[in-house]
């Protein structure tokens, strides 16, 4: 009796074992082509969000997934409506938050701003968040272009000068340069390992 060949099952099993052990893994599909690296699942960090007066208005919790970063945002005291939110290249939050620098976008072949830009997006771009009538935001965002794991896909946020998450006064139109018309920086949080 001949047993059937199971290349897909074996590849999936090897990938699952690597993920469970907490390391970065490269897996192969049944054609032998290499897929993207996966990051160490479960690494986490946090950013305390402050407004221009230095008051604590909430937090952003970062959790590493296998192919990207999940960001949970909880904030109060914002103007009701849509707000742009981006990952910035420097872990500083001195009002008016220009100390956070521009977006993380230092990879080879850096791209222009905008999730809807045909040549974009840059690595710091995120979907808009919405503040309700009381100015509260409760949202989860996901990006494949940033990571807090030591290795894997996306820009590493724990580099020498750190990173920050910045909330803007207006919504991001996801196309125009340099920040999609999102306006002033109204909240900022320095991202730190948890």
Automatic annotation (TrEMBL):
It comes from the Bacteria. Residues 58-190 form the Superoxide dismutase copper/zinc binding domain. Its EC number is 1.15.1.1. Keywords: Oxidoreductase, Signal. Residues 1-18 form the signal peptide. It holds the Pfam family Sod_Cu. GO terms for molecular function: copper ion binding; superoxide dismutase activity. Belongs to the Cu-Zn superoxide dismutase family. This is Cu-Zn family superoxide dismutase.
């Amino acid at each position: 009796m001949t047993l059937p060949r199971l290349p897909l099952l074996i590849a999936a099993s090897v990938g699952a074992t690597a993920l469970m052990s907490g390391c970065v893994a490269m897996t192969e599909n049944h054609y032998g082509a290499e897929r993207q690296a996966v990051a160490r699942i479960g690494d986490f960090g946090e950013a305390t969000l402050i407004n221009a007066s230095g008051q604590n208005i909430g937090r952003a919790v970062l959790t590493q997934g296998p192919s990207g970063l999940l960001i949970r945002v909880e904030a109060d005291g914002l103007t009701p409506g849509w707000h742009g939110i981006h990952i910035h290249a420097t872990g500083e939050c001195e009002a008016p938050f220009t100390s956070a620098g521009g977006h993380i976008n230092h990879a080879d072949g850096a791209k222009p701003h905008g999730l809807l830009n045909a040549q974009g997006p840059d690595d710091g771009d995120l979907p808009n968040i919405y503040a309700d009538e009381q100015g509260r935001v409760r949202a989860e965002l996901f990006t494949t272009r940033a990571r807090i794991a030591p290795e894997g896909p996306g820009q590493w946020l724990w580099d020498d000068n750190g990173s920050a998450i910045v909330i803007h006064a207006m919504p991001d139109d996801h196309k125009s340069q340099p920040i999609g018309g999102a306006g002033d920086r109204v909240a900022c949080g320095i991202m730190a390992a948890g």
